[in-house]
């Protein structure tokens, strides 16, 4: 792979962290900066944090050059042309080793399976196909030629011709005029094309076919149009169809545009396929983003128990144009055109640090399945104080009889009914000892439900706040303008507000996931420490939020600015502490869960 | 001229000129892109003697995308939905090739009637029937061919239907027939009405009892 450094060994990685290997990191960053175009801005980090992973952002061109490297390699060792090598690699899911092995083993079979050369047997076995083939349709007329071509090829299987010429034959045939079997056009000046199988059709039909395959089916492996012909169109053939030769007369403008669009879509499909085949790569999930991230340290499933591979694809909104934009537009861009942050290890959108993929997934599933039900149960039911069955009261008086254990109790005070006598519709005994005890028992049995809702509500709260951050950005922007008017601060000087909002947003994300983490953490000192850190961060974030909401008066702006700046730095620090400590904990194997999590020891005891 | 139109016109003309294949393609209305194909049931199969009609829709990107075909005539076959007429055939999906024509596709459908693929069924109920008792399946298929595809009834004139289970042969559920028979309708009438309404599979949920009774009272 094209990664400049290899930090897949966690031990080494951690040591470096301990010895503060900043020098190394910096020099590597410099190299990276040189390698990437303007679209790619790697944030310069003085020191790699333990909660960050090493990754590389790749543009479509970068991935294409990776593909080219593999293709060149195969060309070199097999002595085949680029087209054949590409077809073979795509067929083998870009697994060079497997391809080499099978190629050495049975060259002809691999070539046929990849659609790079015609197969020898063209007689279909299925009765359905036989039937249609023997019918007097166009298909039969060409059968003999298919066979002849494949035999010709089969006679010298050891050396596939290095450059397979595309047949660009003039349509004139000595005896009969050529009729395209697809459009039934028989114009004498018609351009025709065929692959090695010599199934000849007119160029227009080929183009329409290829465009339809690419555009409508997102297919990158396009077979010959003839029925049951397994040959796949090589890249140069497709290029010839879709990309007009330089200097060629300009034809139908609309059609040409459509062809070029299909060609660029095809390139994207090739890249996507390559990325899908390679565990070290992941395509950016943001809509219409074509970048790829390479993160070898998170490629294996087992690595996901120790790291949270949050990566960003390097694209930041619309690159290049930001200079000419007004200040407000820039702010808008920084919100909508946020970095494309995503998790390399799982399909969860955005950043789920500090909690690892498996636990985050578990939590999301639980929330989807349980949260509404749990809320309903909480507000509509009570538990029988004797057998803990969940009971919904759907009418009648307060004298309840549990259907299950026949225990009789009062719905209002939860005490046994025996003490109530005949006061069926009123309970004035709320403070009686037995009632208090019964309610205690009830609350204990509710603990697990309450516990879940405690974490869920906080999680949901931060999620909601994060969703409202767009509003907050807009509000802050207004405030910033206001500040410029009421005080003599410049635009640059009021940026502290924006910085603070961004930090709050980021920390809310962290906080949100700390609640998912805390829900599953096993009780103990580690969890207490974790929750202490969480509490500190939460307090800091809320303080900062409050400051941001506070009204602006001309005379308090300097103090406000001082306070906000201070708080922002503090919040930033608390956030880092939470992330770093959790990440270190994962690497040291310090965390214990109260449920079974893949890749971790089973929980010691089920105490929640 | 539009390449698609030219091709379709040529295909229709070719079919008209070809007297040997017995495949017919007709227009539904004035549009050449919505057609009705028909072919005789293959000999030596339960579909022999019937005439099977197929609804054909030519998509915008034809012939680069497959035609859309479904049976108009009800067919009792594992790869054809007994409720909707939808067909499960590879060449109508991913194995489609632009050199295939309407005629060759219809011939493929004809061949499909000869050689069912119960392991890749469209209608799971029918496929189960086929797998468990081929003889009984064929009997039903033959009966459907007579009722829906106009095949001559070999038993006509003979007395009674013998031990044949009319309900099973009609492809209906005994419980459904019993339900309406219990309302006081004659059994043969119920079978007839339910068959007309195609009261089977997922259709049952969509057809209300009132609708059935209405049909029975006709």
Description:
- The complex is a heterodimer of chains A (608) and B (218).
- Chain A is mainly alpha-helical.
- Chain A folds into 4 domains: 10-57 and 280-343, no CATH class; 64-122 and 139-272, no CATH class; 357-361 and 448-588, Four Helix Bundle (Hemerythrin (Met), subunit A), CATH 1.20.120.1750; 384-442, no CATH class.
- Chain A is 51% helix and 5% strand.
- Chain B has helices at residues 3-17, 102-114, 124-132, 134-149, 166-169, 174-181, 187-197, 203-206, 209-217, and strands spanning 24-27, 34-40, 51-57, 68-71.
- Chain B has a 4-stranded antiparallel sheet.
- In chain B, β1 (24-27) and β2 (34-40) form a beta hairpin.
- Classes of the chains: A mainly alpha (608), B alpha+beta (218).
- The A-B interface holds A 127-129, 131-132, 135-139, 181-185, 199, 201, 204-205, 208-209, 212-213, 216, 225-229 and B 3, 6-7, 10, 18, 20-21, 61, 63-65, 89, 91, 97-101, 103-105, 107-108, 110-112, 114-115.
Quote the distance from N terminus to C terminus of chain B: 50 Å
Oligomer: heterodimer
Portion in helices of chain A: 40-55%
**Total beta strand runs of chain A:** 11
Looking at the structure, what is the overall shape of chain B? elongated
The class by helix and strand makeup of chain B works out as: alpha+beta
Overall mean pLDDT of chain A stands at 76
Gyration radius over CA of chain B: 19 Å
Describe the strand arrangement of the main beta sheet of chain A, using strand numbers.
1-5-4
Order of the strands making up the biggest sheet of chain B: 1-2-3-4
Low-confidence blocks of residues of chain B: 157-163
Strand content of chain B: 5-15%
Q: At CATH's second level, what is the architecture of the largest domain in chain B?
A: Roll
Keywords (chain B): ATP-binding, Nucleotide-binding, Transferase, Ubl conjugation pathway
Domain UBC core (chain B): 3-150
Protein name (chain B): Ubiquitin-conjugating enzyme E2 1
GO molecular function, one term (chain B): ubiquitin conjugating enzyme activity
């Amino acid at each position: 792979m094209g990664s400049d450094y290899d930090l897949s060994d966690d031990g080494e990685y951690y040591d470096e962290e301990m010895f503060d290997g900043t020098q190394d990191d910096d020099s590597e960053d410099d190299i990276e900066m040189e390698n990437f175009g303007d679209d790619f801005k790697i944030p310069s980090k003085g020191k790699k944090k333990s909660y960050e992973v090493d990754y590389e952002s790749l543009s479509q061109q970068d991935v294409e050059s990776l593909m080219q490297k593999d293709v060149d390699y195969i060309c070199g060792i097999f002595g085949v042309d680029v087209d054949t090598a590409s077809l073979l690699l795509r067929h083998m899911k870009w697994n060079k080793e497997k391809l080499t092995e099978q190629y050495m083993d049975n060259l002809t079979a691999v070539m046929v399976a990849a659609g790079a050369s015609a197969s020898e047997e063209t007689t279909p076995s299925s009765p359905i196909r036989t039937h249609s083939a023997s019918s007097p349709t166009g298909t039969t007329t060409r059968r003999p030629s298919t066979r002849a071509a494949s035999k010709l090829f089969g006679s010298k299987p050891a050396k596939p011709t290095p450059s397979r010429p595309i047949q660009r034959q003039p349509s004139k045939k000595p005896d009969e005029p050529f009729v395209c079997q697809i459009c039934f056009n028989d114009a004498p000046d018609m351009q025709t094309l065929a692959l090695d199988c010599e199934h000849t059709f007119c160029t227009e039909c080929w183009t329409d076919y290829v465009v339809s395959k690419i555009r409508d089916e997102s297919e990158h492996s396009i077979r010959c149009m003839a029925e049951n012909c397994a040959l796949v169109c090589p890249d140069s053939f497709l290029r010839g169809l879709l990309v007009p030769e330089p200097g060629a007369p300009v034809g139908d403008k609309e059609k040409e545009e459509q062809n070029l669009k299909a060609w660029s879509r095809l390139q994207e499909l090739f890249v996507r396929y390559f990325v899908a085949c390679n565990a070290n790569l992941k395509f950016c999930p943001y809509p219409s983003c074509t970048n790829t991230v390479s993160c070898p340290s998170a490629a294996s499933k087992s690595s996901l128990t120790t790291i949270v591979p949050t990566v960003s694809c390097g694209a930041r909104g619309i690159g290049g144009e930001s200079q000419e934009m007004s200040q407000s537009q820039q702010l808008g861009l920084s919100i909508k055109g946020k970095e494309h942050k995503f998790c390399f290890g799982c399909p969860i959108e955005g950043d789920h640090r500090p909690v690892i993929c498996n636990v985050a997934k578990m939590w999301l599933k639980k929330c989807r399945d349980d949260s509404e039900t749990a809320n309903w149960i909480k507000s509509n039911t009570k538990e029988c104080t004797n057998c803990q069955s969940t009971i919904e009261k759907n009418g009648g008086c307060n004298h309840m009889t549990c259907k299950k254990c026949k225990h009789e109790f009062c719905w209002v005070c939860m005490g046994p009914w025996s003490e109530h006598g005949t006061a069926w519709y009123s309970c004035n005994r709320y403070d009686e000892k037995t009632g208090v005890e019964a309610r205690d028992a009830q609350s204990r049995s509710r603990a697990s439900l309450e516990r879940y809702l405690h974490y869920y509500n906080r999680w949901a709260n931060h999620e909601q706040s994060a969703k409202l951050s767009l509003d907050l950005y807009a509000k802050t922007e207004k405030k910033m303008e206001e500040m410029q008017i009421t005080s003599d601060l410049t635009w640059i000087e009021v940026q502290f507000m924006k910085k603070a909002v961004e930090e709050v947003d980021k920390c809310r994300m962290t906080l949100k996931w700390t609640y998912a983490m805390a829900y599953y953490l096993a009780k103990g000192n580690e969890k207490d420490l974790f929750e202490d850190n969480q509490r500190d961060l939460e307090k800091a974030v809320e303080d900062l939020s409050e400051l941001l909401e506070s009204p602006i008066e001309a005379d308090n702006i300097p103090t406000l600015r001082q306070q906000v700046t201070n708080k922002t730095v503090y919040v930033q620090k608390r956030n880092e502490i939470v992330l770093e400590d959790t990440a270190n904990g994962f690497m040291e194997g310090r965390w214990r869960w109260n449920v079974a999590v893949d890749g971790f020891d089973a929980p010691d005891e089920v105490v929640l | 001229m539009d390449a698609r139109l030219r091709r379709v016109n040529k295909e229709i003309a070719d079919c008209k000129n070809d007297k040997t294949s017995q495949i017919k393609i007709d227009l539904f209305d004035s549009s050449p892109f919505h057609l009705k194909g028909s072919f005789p049931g293959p000999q030596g199969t339960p579909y022999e003697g019937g005439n099977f009609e197929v609804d054909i829709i030519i998509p915008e990107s034809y012939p680069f995308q497959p035609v859309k075909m479904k049976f108009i005539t009800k067919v009792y076959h594992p790869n054809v939905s007994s409720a909707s007429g939808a067909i499960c055939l590879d060449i109508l999906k991913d194995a489609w090739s632009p050199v295939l024509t309407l005629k060759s596709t219809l011939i493929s459908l004809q061949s499909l009637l000869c050689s069912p693929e119960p392991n890749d069924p469209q209608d799971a109920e029918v496929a189960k029937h086929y797998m468990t008792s081929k003889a009984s399946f064929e009997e039903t298929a033959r009966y459907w061919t007579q009722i829906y595809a106009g095949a001559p009834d070999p038993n006509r004139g003979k007395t009674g239907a013998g031990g044949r289970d009319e309900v099973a042969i009609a492809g209906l559920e005994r419980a459904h027939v019993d339900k309406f028979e219990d309302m006081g309708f004659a059994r043969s009438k119920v079978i007839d009405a339910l068959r007309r309404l195609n009261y089977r599979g997922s259709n049952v949920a969509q057809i209300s009892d009132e609708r059935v009774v209405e049909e029975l009272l006709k």
